[in-house]
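Need residues for this backbone.
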């Protein structure tokens, strides 16, 4: 994972200070690529502990075609909570304490954070226990799962991009059209967050399956380690179904950035030496769509301790 650390160092050194949607501020650099040989180990960052269980359950959520956070909460996965929470606190149904700019305020105001945490806990409980509430406020719109599994056509029909690309890999492995896109311009306004990882392409050669991701925007400290591992896992899963060996994962990033409130964390991570990569074991039958959490096993992951950092919402 040295190339990931090299990218962090390069953006710190050569990046440009920019404003951003969240109001946090970033150091940003445009146009970077990393390539991971999956035969050398599973590319999960070792210079800090990365919660692989969250990565795997989020990927299964995408694969299910789900766009409601209820499944994630049932898996104790809170990656998307803030975006759904924002839908609730900005709605006419919400009558609790003022949550304006809750993301930034909860980082700077300890008293407000206590209030925010209490409201967030209430929100999660309502999602899990109140079906009507979950349907209204747990929904994130036409995000990744919808685009991967039910892309809307002008005829009113849908396209299951992921299922079709897997069949294409099996039936026409040399095709240059093994592509899944999450960027649907018509649906962008209805998404809680427009897709950061926008398009991925599979490639078959020498009995191996490789995948390249184009990511328009990448939070280098918090997000990118998740994205690397998520698409590496997807590549393993699709390779297994298609009777291929995992090849490489190529990660192409547009706006690669470090948030201004992550600088201390990044410097701490850069002071650490990478450790040996873990390995991945898939124990289910050769079917991507029936994979459950118990079928995914990470072996010998022994990273440095975790480094906490706030999420920019």
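Answer:
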């Amino acid at each position: 994972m040295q190339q990931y650390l090299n990218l962090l160092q390069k953006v710190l050194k050569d990046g440009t200070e920019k404003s951003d949607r969240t109001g946090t501020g970033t150091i940003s650099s445009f146009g970077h690529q990393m390539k991971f040989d999956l035969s050398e180990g599973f590319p999960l960052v070792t210079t800090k502990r990365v919660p692989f269980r969250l990565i795997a359950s989020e990927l299964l959520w995408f694969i299910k075609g789900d766009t409601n956070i209820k499944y994630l909460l049932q898996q104790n996965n809170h990656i998307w909570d803030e975006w759904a929470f924002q839908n609730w606190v900005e709605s006419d149904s919400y009558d609790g304490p003022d949550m304006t700019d809750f993301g930034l305020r909860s980082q700077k105001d300890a008293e407000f954070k206590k209030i925010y945490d209490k409201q967030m806990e209430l929100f999660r409980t309502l999602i899990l226990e109140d079906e009507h509430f979950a349907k209204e406020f747990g929904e994130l719109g036409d995000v990744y799962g919808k685009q991967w599994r039910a892309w809307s056509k002008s005829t009113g029909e849908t396209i299951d991009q992921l299922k079709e690309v897997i069949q294409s890999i099996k039936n026409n492995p040399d095709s240059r059209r093994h592509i899944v896109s999450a960027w649907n311009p018509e649906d962008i306004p209805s998404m809680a967050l427009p897709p950061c990882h926008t398009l991925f392409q599979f490639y078959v050669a020498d009995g191996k399956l490789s995948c390249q991701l184009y990511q328009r925007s990448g939070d280098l400290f918090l997000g990118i380690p998740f994205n690397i591992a998520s698409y590496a896992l997807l590549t393993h899963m699709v390779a297994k179904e298609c009777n291929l060996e995992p090849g490489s994962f190529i990660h192409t990033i547009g706006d690669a950035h470090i948030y201004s409130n992550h600088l201390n964390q990044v410097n701490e991570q850069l002071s650490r030496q990478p450790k040996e990569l873990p390995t991945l074991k898939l124990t289910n039958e050769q079917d991507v769509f029936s994979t459950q959490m118990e079928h995914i096993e990470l072996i010998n992951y022994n990273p440095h301790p975790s480094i906490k950092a706030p999420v920019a919402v």
